Amino acid sequence: MLLTLLLACAGGGPSSPAPDDATPECGEGELFDGEICVPEACGMAPWGDVEGTVYVDASAAAGGDGSPDAPLSDLPTAVAASTETDIIVLAAGTYPVNLAVEKRSLDLRGRCTELVVLDGSVVSPKKPTLSFNDERPGRQDLLRLQGLTVSGGGVGVFTGGGEVDLDDIVVQQGQGYNLAITNSDGQLDDVRLLDVQTSGGVNDDAGWGLFVAGNSTVEARRLYLRGGVERGIQVYDRADLLLEDSTLDAFNPDGQHGTVMQVSYASATLHDVALTDSTGWGIEVYDGTLDFEGVAITGQRGLGRSAFYPALGAYDGAVITGSGLRIEDSAGGVMSGTGSTIELQQVAMMDSDRDSVGAGLWAWGGRLVVEDVETERTHGTSFASVFGGELVVRRGLVAGVDPGGIEVDGTVLESAGTGLTLVDESTAELTDVVLSGIEGAGILLHGQESGTSRLTLVDVEIADIETHWQTRGAAGIYAQQGTVSADGLVVRDIAGPGLVLQGTDDGAATSLSCTDCDISGVRQAGVIAVGQAPGTQVAIDGCSIQDVAVDDGSGLSIGMLFTETSQPPTVTVRDCEVSGTAHGALFVVGNGAVDVQDSTLHAGSGATYGGLQVHGNAVYATGGIGPWDGATGLRLTGNQLVPGSGDTVLLHDASATLQDNDWGGTDGVLRQQHCDEALPVEGGDEAPRFDDCPGWDHLVLEIDTMPTDTPPVEL
To answer: What distance in Å separates the CA atoms of residue 54 and residue 46, rounded to the nearest whole number?
Structure first.
């Protein structure tokens, strides 16, 4: 063991003894102590710069008195011969011990960690290498270790009371635990915990680098942890841990679901802590508290392709608060589980792992509040997903969400990406957030029969949404069985419709309230609302819908489409401008109370559909998809209707109420078409199509600009 440490520190191994007439050249940061090259921190043999009262040298002859000139040769003898106030100094060497210290203080100081090793694997490998128990009432004994390495043993160092002060030590290869602090107050400085094991230890299922439990308060600074099996760090049962300027590195359990750091029924505070290159979960808090400032998680991976490996998670009523979180090149993000609360500021998530389907932010039955978040080049289902929980995001920039994949029974299932997903009676509030560069959908909202999801958007922009190969198209927002309230919404450059709202026959309705909404550069339609459940409502006050392209699959290009399937929607539109469509500014199918006021509706430019040239209209209303039972709930009041390639207003087997509309300063055209009888078509009794009618009644009205006192025209 000593040879291994010397090789690691001397950069190629200890130098050969120098010839009588030469001094070897040691590496940078090393010195020649008369025999070999050693790190400068080790000082000159035999004691370096360490001073004490009892001296021990494993290479010394037996029978010494513990003085520097006649050191003792083994540690148990030195402990037995010393008092509580003595400082025991260890020279370079390996000391096979399973040392149990009770009812006294102990101060051990080695020449340096690279040269002094307490080895617990030789005598009784399942026992602790060093255990310290303080059971005396009214006394607070102290264990102090400095400048040495503790290796092997069922536990490297165990404390069961008193105080512990560890400074510049290494604890490695414990068979179950490296460092276990219970019912003790501790101060750890420059401690390295390396490569804990699980085979043959006191707890074969453990493999924990640092375990802090009971009524323990521990402050650790510049802690370095490498490796681990089940836990890197476990804080448990009323314990409190402060961790500063520390690195938890290369936690990669072999085929196990490990956790780098877990806080259970306890509390922890982190300042400037890095988690790097780990496998499994990152930081978990169960029914405890965590506060942090400056946490970086890099290279965190799941065990295979799975959805649930959060980098930071709160569960069972836990509370996490923090600022300065960065997650990069990792499989997971942040999850707030049932009954838990997470409140974060200054969050960055970059370059997430492609082999995952986990969201950046998860509110899974809990509350998650994030301010000032930025993401780039992420993969997975969503930037944020809410399942029966609550999400609040203030000031965010999301740039790029690609599909992720999850492996189920050997098959990789790839899912489309979304900026935000709400499912199962969830709530979300986004303020001053940009969602862009997403392959799938900007926002997907879906309630359940038991209730609806609620989404509030303030100054939110959804942009650059691309079609995923598994879907027919993209959408800015797709909402079903939920409530959407938006103020200052911008939706642009979408490879599908801007806003889609749809109820279900067996569920709750969908409603949209939108103020000052800007929709441009979309396909198929700016707004689509399908009344399929009682109570589906749309209220738009102030909007701009422009540049709606023809969708390759449907051939549609419509500003606003309101249609019923089983229940009519209720729609109110005020102060909107719709232009740049092919088939019309407003399209109403079937019944529904559709009231459009004080808006500008530009007739469409026309487009080829099914090999035919189809003219565009400012307004087009028709009967339902089934038998033509008419559209009767359309009301146009105080609007500017701008003619284009087709009729300004075209009613097919429909009626409308028109009042105080401006027909663009020119003669406008209002046309009504009606199929006199429902003729059967070949092969069955289906409802007639347009071309099934042998002759339509064409009612063409040439209407001048209507004065404001003109009574409504009932058709």
So the answer is: 14
Rounded to an integer, what distance in angstroms lies between the CA atom of residue 308 and that of residue 692?
56
Contact call for residues 392 and 373 (beta carbons, < 8 A): no
The predicted-structure confidence for 265-281, as pLDDT tens digits, reads as follows 999 999 999 999 888 88
Question: What is d(CA 361, CA 350) in angstroms, rounded to the nearest whole number?
Answer: 13
Mean pLDDT computed over 175-202: 86
55 secondary structure, DSSP code: E
Residue with the bigger pLDDT between 665 and 493: it is 493
Helices (H), 403-526: none
Residue 707 has pLDDT above 70, yes or no: no
Query: Using CA atoms, how far apart are residues 137 and 534, in angstroms rounded to an integer?
Result: 72
* β strands within 334-426, DSSP E: 334-336, 341-350, 361-364, 367-379, 382-387, 390-402, 404-408, 411-415, 417-423
> What are 17's two structure tokens?
């003894």
**631 pLDDT more than 60:** yes
Cα dihedral 420→421→425→429 (10° resolution): 0
Phi (first) and psi of residue 78, to 5 degrees:
-65, -40
For residue 83, give the nearest of 54, 48, 111, 43 by alpha carbon.
Answer: 54
Q: Which residues pair with 266 in a beta bridge?
A: none
Burial of residue 202 (number of CB atoms within 10 Å: 0-12, 13-18, 19+): middle
Rounded to an integer, what is the distance from CA 680 to the centroid of its chain? Answer: 56
Is residue 41 classed as helix, strand or coil in its secondary structure? Answer: helix
Give me 442's structure tokens: 């900007």
Cα(387)–Cα(428) distance, integer angstroms: 10
Could you tell me the pTM of the whole model? 0.86
68 prior amide bond cis, ω within 30: no
Smallest CA-to-CA distance from 542 within 483, 463, 487 is with 487
**C-beta atoms surrounding 83 within 10 Å:** 9
Which contiguous run of DSSP H or E holds residue 75?
Answer: helix 75-81
Longest dimension (CA), the chain: 123
**Rounded Cα distance, 267 and 261, in Å:** 12
Q: Give the pair of three-digit tokens for residue 695.
A: 């002759």
Q: Where are the beta strands (DSSP E) in 111-258?
A: 116-119, 130-133, 142-151, 155-159, 163-172, 177-182, 185-194, 208-213, 217-221, 224-226, 231-236, 240-249
Tell me the one-letter amino acid at 400: G
Contacts of 443 (CB under 8 A, 6+ apart): 418, 419, 420, 421, 422, 435, 455, 462, 476, 477, 478, 479
For residues 337 and 319, give the distance between their C-alpha atoms in angstroms, rounded to a whole number.
Answer: 10
Q: Contact, 55 vs 67, CB < 8 A?
A: yes
CA angle 280, 283, 285 (to 5 degrees): 120
